[in-house]
Amino acid sequence: MENIDFGIDLGTTNSGIGRFQNGKVTVFKNPVGFKETLPSVVAYRNDRILIGDKAREFTKVNPEHVFSSFKRKMGSEFIYKIPNSNEEKSAIDFSTLILKELVNFVGEEKPKGAVITIPASFDTIQSNATKTAGHQAGFQEVVLLQEPIAACLAYANTQNIETAETKKWLVYDFGGGTFDVALVKINDRELKVIDHQGNNFLGGIDIDQLMVEHLLCPSLEPLLNEEKLWKKMVGVNQTSYKKLLIELVYKAEEAKKELSINTSTFIEIEVNGNFIELEITREQFNELIAPKVAETIKLTKLLLEKNNVSNAEIDRIILVGGTTYIPYIRTTLSKSFECYVDSTIDPTTAIIVGAAYFAGTKTLKPDNHELKKEIPVAAKEPQRAVKLVYEVNTQDSEELLTGLVEGDFSGYYRITRSDGGFDTGLMPFHSRFNEFLKVLPKATNYFNVKILDKFQNIVHEKDALAINHGIYNISGQPLPNDICIEVDDTLGTTYLEKVFKKNEILPLSKKIYKTISKTILKGTSDKLILNVVEGNAATSPASNLCIGYLEIDAKNLESNLLKGTDIEINFEISESRDLAIGIYIDSIGLEQREVFNASSRNISIEKMRSELNGVLNDIDEEIEGYAYSQSGDMVENLNEIRIGIIELLRELIEAEDDAVTDKIFNIDERKRKVFQQFDQLVREKNVLLEIEEYQACKQEIREELLHKPNLKIERTFDNLIKNENIFINSNQLSIIRSKIKELKKLSRELYYQNDDAYIELFYDYKHLDVMFYENAAQAESLFEKGEQAAEKRNISELKSVISALYNLLKIKPKDYFEDQNGTLGLR
Amino acid sequence: MKNIINQIFEIESKLNTQEKGNLQRNFERLYYELEQKGYKIVNPIGQTYDERDLSIEANLLTENGRQKITKVLKPVVYHNVDGVYTLIQKAVVIVE
Questions:
Q1: B95 to chain A, closest Cα gap in Å
Q2: Is A643 in contact with A616 (CB distance < 8 Å)?
Q3: CB pair distance less than 8 Å for A33 and B50
Q4: What is the mean pLDDT of residues B49-63?
Q5: Of the candidates A308, A408, A376, which has an alpha carbon nearest to the alpha carbon of residue A137?
Q6: In Å, how far is A118's CA from the nearest CA of chain B?
Q7: Do B54 and A422 touch (CB under 8 A)?
Q8: Strand order in the sheet with A527-535
Q9: Residue A419: which H helix or E strand, with range?
Q10: Distance CA A596, CA A723 (A)
Q11: What is this structure's pTM?
């Protein structure tokens, strides 16, 4: 049998929904805004129906269009008139809207039934009205549950409290706008509300206002040269302080939350362009709210007296409502009633959680036809074709969406953005609608479009309607290749980093930040090189077309440029493909900008020579490898490339003094072609080899960590391999190699976790000839000490011997894992 | 991270024009670094109020046609995880 599983807190101020599944309750979040609670407010703005947070925004400025606290009118004959349309609505209708909105919080598996909570004070008529709202919202079955009982269930279930004996609990519910307290009898058979008390106009908002009136206004009065500032703020005719009041209430609420964690906090207020800071201590705050808390204590005592229950009979007080986060309330309750105050679960969602637990035990009955007859339900809408017309790519902040529904259709549409930042609310339409959708810049925006009938039941839904902003644009010219900057890695080689991706639309601009990878001393012949190329980021830098080349000569520097210094680089590419590079180095106050024309090429003979020589070395290594594995064809192809490179190097010498012909450009073109050939021949194989090595290193560390777990190393290891898919598929040798290096470093660290590692290291030093040490006698004496320490396994002594031997070495061994200085100067 | 972003935003809001000029690059850098970590921060100051914009929590002073956002107490923060943005903080604004 299927259970109801869904629990709903249909509150006066806020509502929420949860689901019982696999022994646990999940409280759903609003897909628009991602809050767990939904303000129980409905607003009508022209034709638009807003529900929740947005509806609440109009409470003060447009009260006649906003409907809230309608729960208080449940079961009454009271009729609300909607301005403009003259429609009439009941509290049930508004509650239905709230319930339907809550159903939207749930994913695809929509609830068939629900447990809906009601206040302990609700009579039969009010309870039945709530049930009707549930059925109107589409629930096949509605089970009601009193709010205090729901709260008790939440506490009892989450803590597995034994209730073999009958106990009495107090449910103390102090929310944003109301206060309720209920006395509940609990045992293993039943949960019953004995009695309750409450105040419909006492809540957290009163505390915020008290803070503004008594703590903030007195400090502001002398600065503003005003008297009775609070009265002026809330006065009917005073509009000049409206803005300040909003700000102060907001800051008071923030401070209130802060004071639940810290013993003091600061509130900063801007007055006539100056900032004043007010300190509020928890003591001051407690003193301020004491009368309000006393009011709740008085009501609670009254409840106990009325029912002849002594403090000693109360087993525990359980807390509900956000205001109960305040520590003073908890301690005052504990002192006043001398019993345990249970604050173990989130008081803002306790009722939802309890309702869902209850729903998890209630069986969903088959369709209740009798009840359904009473509810006006629309005739089933026939399936209609819906057409949605929009541009997939946009550069504007809003994009038009047109919706067309086949035939004569009247109903509503609603469009939300999946990031939670946009919601049209319910909009009525006839057969066709137009809506400008707000898009998040530089992102792919996903929208959900719902078409609803006139009873607001969904008849069509389109999810993940994608609109790209600023990524592609049909009207602009797309980049044919990646635009990359050449940067140093930590291995002494370079690689390409994408600045703009292929197919991005011109004009483009971007700012990136890099660091200087080698110290450049002023006045020397060193230089900082910025090389911008067009091509494929996953190939060797030299095989791409250079479109911007900038050298910062150390001779022209006013001060030294130290390794690690930040450098800001701005790139701009115009529609005519002119590239402008601007650099800014704050530490030496250097700012430079250069524009590179698309028709002129920028070539550095020196850089070209170094690239050719570099590849020549690589080819020699490859030829050696292939000759060893007897791959004749490959050796032949590589030799051909080798000869081509030697020829280019020779021509380069000749072209050095040639300022007239374009021979240098010819060499550059041929160089790129030769490099591309080389890349094609060996890159794929090399990338595969590197990936294999990476996987082997990874496996080795994993196994080692299994034998000797080390939390610190494990964390570093997890971080290192986190985005593995991205760098493995990058096809960039340099990036994979850097990762291997990091893994090897970790492996070494793991190795030195073992004592034996130091013994082995000592013998490595000992086996070196004494002539490698600056002082042979001293080295001999250290060898002896080390032998003794190794024998006794005195590792700390051994470490000190190794360190002394290292210092004695004439030539220090090279650390292969040390980061290499860059060649370009940019990392 | 939200608290750090709010502090940066508050510091920036407190500076006068001249001070801001001197520190502009530093703020740009901070926002750039946050963006690299997936945080997109939007300051809606000056925007026309849009009742469909769920990324702002508006305090309306009046209801007179095209109202504008005149004060921003907290910025909008989106977080990008695997290419998908999620609103993690609504802006708190005053509209008049």
A1: 9
A2: no
A3: no
A4: 86
A5: A376
A6: 29
A7: yes
A8: A494-500, A482-488, A527-535, A545-553
A9: none
A10: 35
A11: 0.67
The whole-angstrom separation of Cα A360 and Cα A20 is 5
Cα(B47)–Cα(B70) distance, integer angstroms: 8
* Dist. CA A701–CA A706, nearest whole Å: 9
- Fill in the amino acid letter for A136: Q
The amino acid at A145:
L
Residues in B touching A247 (Cβ below 8 Å): 71, 73, 94
Q: Which residues pair with A314 in a beta bridge?
A: A168
Residue A644, chain B, CB below 8 Å: the answer is no
Which H or E run includes A103?
Answer: helix A91-105
A535: left (phi over 0), alpha (psi -120 to 50) or beta: left
3-state helix, strand, coil in chain B (%, to 5): 35, 35, 30
Distance in Å, alpha carbon of A544 to nearest chain B alpha carbon: 27
Amino acid at A792: K
Distance CA(A735)–CA(A104), nearest Å, equals: 45
Assess whether pLDDT exceeds 50 at residue B46: yes
Chain A, 25 to 44: residues with Cβ < 8 Å from chain B are: 32-34
Return the structure tokens found at A511: 């700012």
Q: Which helix (H) or strand (E) holds A66?
A: strand A66-68
Smallest CA-to-CA distance from A42 within A4, A1, A98, A90 is with: A98
Q: List, for residues A686-734, the tens digit of each pLDDT value.
A: 888 889 999 999 999 999 888 888 888 899 999 888 888 888 888 788 8
pLDDT at A370: 47
Residue-wise pLDDT for A286-303, tens only, equals 999 999 999 999 999 999
Tens-digit pLDDT profile for residues A453-483: 888 888 888 888 988 887 554 556 778 888 9
- Pairwise CA distance, residues B28 & B73, whole Å: 19
- What are the CB-based long-range contacts (under 8 Å, 24+) for A373-376? A374/A132, A374/A135, A375/A132, A375/A135, A375/A136, A376/A136, A376/A455
SS3 state at A45:
strand
* pLDDT value at residue A236: 66
**Are A425 and A433 in contact, with CB atoms under 8 Å apart?**
no
Cβ atoms A115, A4 nearer than 8 A: yes
- Both structure tokens of A325: 């986060």
Helix (H, G, I), strand (E, B) or coil at A256: helix
Three-state SS string over A729-751 comes to CCCCHHHHHHHHHHHHHHHHHHH
Instruction: Return the SS3 of A175.
Output: coil
Yes or no: say if B58 and A57 are a contact pair by the CB < 8 Å rule: yes
| Per-residue model confidence as pLDDT tens digits over A554-589 | 888 888 888 889 999 999 988 778 889 999 988 888
A620: closest CA among A546, A529, A682, A530?
A682
The set of residues, in sequence order, having a beta carbon less than 8 Å from that of B95 and lying 6+ positions away, is B49, B58, B59, B60, B61, B67, B68, B69, B70
Residue A54, pLDDT > 90, answer: no
Which residue does chain A place closest to B23, by CA atoms?
A586
Helix (H) or strand (E) holding A323: none
Residues B21 and A283: their CA atoms lie apart, in Å, by 41
DSSP secondary structure code for residue A82 in this structure: P
CA atoms within 13 A on the CB side of A353: 21
Q: What's the pLDDT band for A382 if we cut at 50, 70, 90?
A: low
Q: Which of A360, A358, A352, A438 is nearest to A398 (CA)?
A: A438
Q: Which of A58, A419, A424 sits opposite B85 (nearest CB)?
A: A419
Range B46-54 average pLDDT? 89
Per-residue pLDDT for A754 more than 70?
A: yes
Which among A58, A511, A586 has the least Cβ separation from residue B32?
Answer: A511
